[in-house]
Description:
This protein is of the alpha/beta class and 322 residues long. It contains nine helices and 14 strands. Helix 2 packs across helix 3 and helix 2 crosses helix 9.
Amino acid sequence: MVKAICISQPGGPEVLRMNNVSLPEPGPGEALVRHHAVGLNYVDVYYRIGLYKQPSYPCGIGFEGAGIVEKVGPKVKEIKPGDRVAYGQSPLGAYAEARVMPAERLVKLPKEIDFKTGAAMMLQGMTVQYLIRRTYRIKKGETILLHAAAGGVGLILCQWAKSLGVNVIGTVGSDEKAKLAKAHGCKHPIVYTRDDFVAVVKKITKGAGVPVVYDSIGKDTFERSLNCLSPRGLMVTFGNASGPVPPFELGTLAAKGSLYITRPTLGTYVAKHADLLATARDLFSVVRSGRSRSASTRPIRSRKRPRRTATSRRAKRPARRC
Ligand SMILES: NC(=O)c1ccc[n+]([C@@H]2O[C@H](COP(=O)([O-])OP(=O)(O)OC[C@H]3O[C@@H](n4cnc5c(N)ncnc54)[C@H](OP(=O)(O)O)[C@@H]3O)[C@@H](O)[C@H]2O)c1
């Protein structure tokens, strides 16, 4: 019996309910993980409000956590009871004291990385890995545009990009966030509520534009992000914080300079177990080496703004199905 956050219909934060649920025995290929911390992500909001569809209700929520394996089912080879593990891409249901989940989604957590950091960085950090190493491999000396630079994904991306010698132009919603982004390696924070980010990007790049835009805002920024790209530049639209991008005329890409566009998700990039392990390994090496540290910032492993976490407690009330 464990406590878990469940939702029985899409809606506002009020649909999140704490229930007591019973845990099944792990079946073939599954592991029971007792969480020490779980991560909260913007994508959880999309699922809660119904923008991304749940398979059925009631259901759990959350994709990210870290803890200790208590039991494994048959045919689980790489993970054993007692292992410290973390994950950032699982079936829904991470907001729980413990859960049974596919063992192949788990990654062993290096001993230098604590559970809270593990739970806070897996989804956002692996997202940054695929965005800047695989969707578009950013290169030393380049200048790129990133929206929500002071957010969870944003702060990791700023640090990682700076460590690679890449100049980040980052949009943020306030002066306070501009300071935070700058302290994490964003070279040119732009407070978009005050300044026109297209004009600022053109000024910084002397009219050339940037080779890539990482846009997780969606509807509100899409068109203007395209206007920041250099010819044959890549638009990476990877989120919908302001709402999904509406259908658009493909000819726009030609008119604005033979642009490329992609709409990636972490799920695709870590779908194969080997890719998941390689992505996590790359992230762990950056975190362990402190490569993201700069004179005025902390490394990813001790971020300034700790993420909210849920710790384990024993359930007392009768069981329900989530
Ligand atoms: N495709 C993928 O694989 C993938 C994986 C992980 C995350 N994501 C996406 O990446 C984005 C960042 O995720 P995160 O968890 O790190 O969240 P986050 O950046 O911490 O939060 C989202 C930020 O978006 C900005 N924003 C701008 N317009 C907004 C609006 N209309 N409503 C709400 N927020 C708005 C806000 O920052 P300002 O106030 O500074 O504008 C807000 O803090 C999300 O869109 C998420 O869906 C995508």
